[in-house]
Amino acid sequence: MTTTVAAYAAPAAKAPLERTTIERREVGEFDVLIDIKFAGICHSDIHQARDGWGEGIFPMVPGHEIAGIVAEVGSGVTKFQVGDRVGVGCMVDSCRECENCKAGLEQYCVGGNVGTYNALDKNGEPTYGGYSEKVVVDENYTVRIPDGLALDVAAPLLCAGITTYSPLKHWNAGPGKKVAVLGMGGLGHMGVKIAHALGAEVTVLSQSLRKKDDGLKLGADHYYATSDPKTFEELAGTFDIILSTVSAPLDFGAFLSLLRTDGALVNVGAPEEPISINLFSVIAGRKTLAGSGIGGIQETQEMLDFCAEHGLGAEIELISASEINDAYERVLNSDVRYRFVIDTATI
């Protein structure tokens, strides 16, 4: 039998979110039922609820930064038991058979993974995300939240944490490497913490110096304003990796000029508009303009364990569900330090 739960949903594109009820599927043999305790608000939620990345599926219950407690397990579940602290990120299924899935890269499933919300599951039913009381998820797409991490600060790690951890690991951020984090927001602040914990020399590149004290406190060694033309003169040819977390179009030529030979500018922020680039920006210096998605399930667990080991949680502002629409506007105005998290008890 399905379970009716309270949730906050956008009834249509660009419409304010409102309280409603949704149906969660029956707990299957390999499913876990999770009592959601906290759900982060990601800029991705806003893009999708407002059709910024294409036509969405409505009504839409956003939320792919989910932290909670296992309330029920299916008869075949072996990885979790009732009472476990767990998380769910940006996907809840994939084909499990393609080369990428078998390699632990479910986020790059050849047939496309099933998003935690704004997607259709294998039965053709829409998926609904974490702005809700409960969720049913296959155990293979659920991760364990270590005891060393509080659930509220752990929730944003399920997107912001893994989205920055995965490329930093892939491009070998660590001792002897100079890493720049472009943008000091929900993703960027985690990028700073993680790059610092990996042992890299970390620079924040932000529009202004408004958040400089925060950046240095979170682990940055240097902090520069991109609105100052002298920044690009002073830092030319400096970085091994630039991790761009911004979702606005950039002058990619200018930022590529900050890379050393063989450096990489990796995008995890996704602007709604197409970008243009002069290819000589990458040809000169054998530079890479790249992108990175989230991480696979195994890597997401690795990231959570890493964050617990190093005491890394997100910097959050806890809100009630009734504040979601205000929070969306504040995210768009860069008025959050650094991640809104919904206390789902208020739904």
UniProtKB/TrEMBL annotation:
Belongs to the zinc-containing alcohol dehydrogenase family. Its EC number is 1.1.1.2. It comes from the Bacteria. Its cofactor is Zn(2+). GO terms for molecular function: alcohol dehydrogenase (NADP+) activity; zinc ion binding. This is alcohol dehydrogenase (NADP(+)). Residues 15-342 form the Enoyl reductase (ER) domain. Coiled coil: none annotated. InterPro entries: ADH-like_C, ADH-like_N, ADH_Zn_CS, CAD-like, ER, GroES-like_sf, NAD(P)-bd_dom_sf.
